[in-house]
Amino acid sequence: MAFSSWWVFVSTFIASAASQSTTVSSNAATYTNPIVPTGADPWVTRHDGYYYMTYTTTTNITILRSQDLVDWSNAEVKLAFDPPPGQNYSTDLWAPELHNIADRWYIIFTADPNYDSPPPILDMLCTFACPAVNHRMYVLESSSSDPWESNYTLKSQLDTYDQFAIDGTYFRHKTGLYHIYSCWYTAYESWPANLCISKMSDPWTVESNVTERQLLSVPSNPWEKTPYGRSYNERLSSNEGPQQLTNPNTGQEFVIYSAARSDNRNYCLGQLELVGEDPMNNQDWRKRNEGCVFYQNALEDAFGVGHASFTTSPDGTESWIVYHGMRNPYTGWSARDIRAQKFEWNEDGTPNFPRPGYGPYEVPSGTNATMRM
């Protein structure tokens, strides 16, 4: 992407964010959703008094920085990575995430070489149409411990055994570092999309071979299928967008993932809990099969809610979910915007997510009122 094109994107974001700031109540103690009026696959992390957000732009990787979790109208904007043409990672960059590991920042993201359009000679190998067959996972590394002042360079392609891979994330555990991502069972299976895990030796190197890779979850429940409960094939049924969530009080480890299809009203969040000691043992994970843990609220026109990330309020006392959703479920991917809400914890240590909506809601605890003037 040329700089002029990126600046058009930035200018559009600033104008759009500024217009949405009018939805923030004149009472500085409340805000309304969306917090970003256009966008999907949001990742938010907090570091040294700032929130950093990345999300899918498809053409590059851009980082936003704000001191206010729920008002991005004055956010700073940084181009972290503008891929050169003609590479395997040049197009359709999806779901970037910014992680701090061993005093460096790593951006893990998905990309492909040809706008998600494989030639017929490749597409015909798939069980169903497989436009994402060439998507793979990549990692950028920062030049310093400062996520904003750093330059980011391509460190590596992650080994996913030359198979479809999207929505990868890091899972940190006392036994090591792991890569959890959305995978097909074989190279040309082309649905369903499952959750896979592999062991890493560092943030850019997978040490597990393909026989050691494990499937953690497959979309076996009606709410994980598209359309809801589809019985006669697995096309478009998905588990994707995995995110690690740790209970700050009990230390319980969860993977919250997205289910069904991201342009569909039924897109929602499912839950895995690590109940054993080995993340690579699929029997050490417990899946909540009863239903989505976060799902559409048709009474408030909040549809397609998913692909979440998690952070805390400025004072660290509250847990917050940042996710994308849509008001119009018939428009598909273009209708998605970015939202945030506080959530609680159940007595058994599992997350207790709210019903998605638009507010007004109280701003995160510890939000500096002067930043909202």
Automatic annotation (TrEMBL):
One of its GO terms (biological process) is carbohydrate metabolic process. Keywords: Glycosidase, Hydrolase, Signal. GO terms for molecular function: hydrolase activity, hydrolyzing O-glycosyl compounds. Residues 1-19 form the signal peptide. CDD domains: GH43_LbAraf43-like (cd18820). The keyword Hydrolase applies. It comes from the Eukaryota. Residues 349-373 are annotated as: Disordered. PANTHER family: GLYCOSYL HYDROLASE (PTHR43817), HYDROLASE, FAMILY 43, PUTATIVE (AFU_ORTHOLOGUE AFUA_3G01660)-RELATED (PTHR43817:SF1). Belongs to the glycosyl hydrolase 43 family. This is Arabinanase/levansucrase/invertase. It comes from Hortaea werneckii EXF-2000.
